[in-house]
Fold:
Amino acid sequence: MDVYEPQNNGEKALQARADALNLPLCGALELLPLCNMDCNMCYIRHSVSELEQPLLHVTDWLRMMEGARDAGTLYVLLTGGEPLLYPEFQELYLALQEMGFVLTINTNGTLFNEGWADFFVNHACKRFNISLYGASNETYDRLCRNPQGFTQVMNTLRLMRKRKLPCRLNFTITGENQGDIGQMIQIAKDFDFPFTPVCYNFPPVRKCESVDAGEIRMPPEAAGKARKNVTLLQVPSSERVSRARLLLNGLMLPVWTDNIEKGFTCHAGLSSYWIDWKGNLTACGMMKEMEADLRKTDFQTAWQKIAANGKEISICEECTHCGLKQFCTSCPAICMDETGKTDGKPQYLCDMTISFLRQMIAELPSEEQRFYSDLLDKRIPT
Structure:
């Protein structure tokens, strides 16, 4: 789970340099695990009565982030839960800006109003990442238990466009909203906001370890179909066959061999980190097995521990040599959450990826389907 997405070549070069030097350039602050919605697939949401300890005070966050700034952090993501529910949000936000951090905000977009807009017009952030969970109030009621959620988010999008606030839409595709994919994409296009769809849902290991992921996630075959729909509905219908063919042509390329035997496969633990609502520093917000308590340890010491441990974690050997890895998002955090081991094979993701490719092949003319099916069959791990 990358906490920062470079938007130009300069930012990409900066992050690459930070990776090489193992500097904590980017960090996510998980301000609280509370939300005004209760989405089925949420990995973190608690109720107030479930909190194991009080929320961190602004002074706690600022003390930790002074150490982060001194260690090299520039980009900070404010997330949750719903971060706008954090009691001292504006105080913390302004203090972080004063310290020189470039801020991005994750939000579900249901609490935004003219007052918030005035605040952010006067104190601009880099971008808002707004989660769009459907294209109707009925979907929001079914998925998020908020029967007015869609109306609230649409009002927010109109307000953001009116006030010229930078925005990106994030789509989390589930069984409850998969029928809205085309409409969600059209909403993003109508507002001219970039969007990022995600069809893989992590098991809810941070929300409740007793919950079976199979109870809330689509079967992998259905998730693969949803990924196909997300991919092809982004282009005009006349271009969908050529888009499918272009993607599937990757099956003809040689399988590259990674020399990586240990460590994260993204920026986690190299140049990015996550601090949860309790004050624990970890390389990835979806991987709680490796963390350091910043209430007891200074940031630099904690970062060095996390970075060193991250370089030694085992990764899935089968994923490393898989012929389909260019189409897959497997990483140590996914493997851990799916299997309990960073080097375990995430079978759900494997099945989802294969389903996605078969669904894409089915979009081609019948005379081409056998050719690409044979290519796929040769690459599927036995």
Notes: The chain has 14 helices and nine strands. The chain has a mean pLDDT of 93. Residues 44 and 74 are 26 Å apart (CA to CA).
